[in-house]
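Pipeline run #58 for the internal structure catalog. This entry was flagged by the ingest filter as a single-chain record with no existing model, so it goes straight to prediction. Upstream metadata was stripped on purpose; only the residue string is passed forward. Reviewer on rotation: M.T. Logging verbosity set to normal.
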Amino acid sequence: MYESGDLRKGLKIEIDGEPYIIVKFAFVKPGKGQALYKCTLKNMITGTRFDRAFRSGEKFNEANLEEIEMEYLYSDKQGYCFMNTSNYEQEFLVEDQIAESKNYLKENTVCNVLLFDDKPIGITLPNFINLRIKKADPWAKGDTASGDTKPATLETGYSIHVPTFIEEGELVKIDTRTGEYVERVKE
């Protein structure tokens, strides 16, 4: 059980039976009256955001969340299929729950699936993932050390900017938090 004094950015609480994460937080002490805790909350299931102020002494339940390591298997009309690596049970998530993670998701990727009351609501990818360049324009002679980048398409279909020396078929490391190229991976 949390109290309003425990509120901070990133805290996950349950309100009206649904999990919320605090996206923004501010403590306000007006000249008169009781202190307020102003928060921007994001519903972890629907993704909707709203602002709400809480007074000192209010209590909140901790969201019943659990992260389980799962392996991404495939996607079809039902959604994205993940398999629990310990008991081999499968769970499906819809595209809205995957969000931008789909840009870096390839078969057999191991990630953490977030569960609320034993129902999957989202995933957390590893910070870095290795993906192959599917399409990239050829390197033009004279493009050296200028710091220029060129667009390239990853094996997942997502486009990023890479240095000019990167060619088709090469394996690169991508930061899944920013979506940026990190380095070339030696095979």
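catalog note: The two ends are 49 Å apart (CA to CA).
catalog note: The first strand starts at residue 2 and ends at 3.
status: ready for reviewer M.T.
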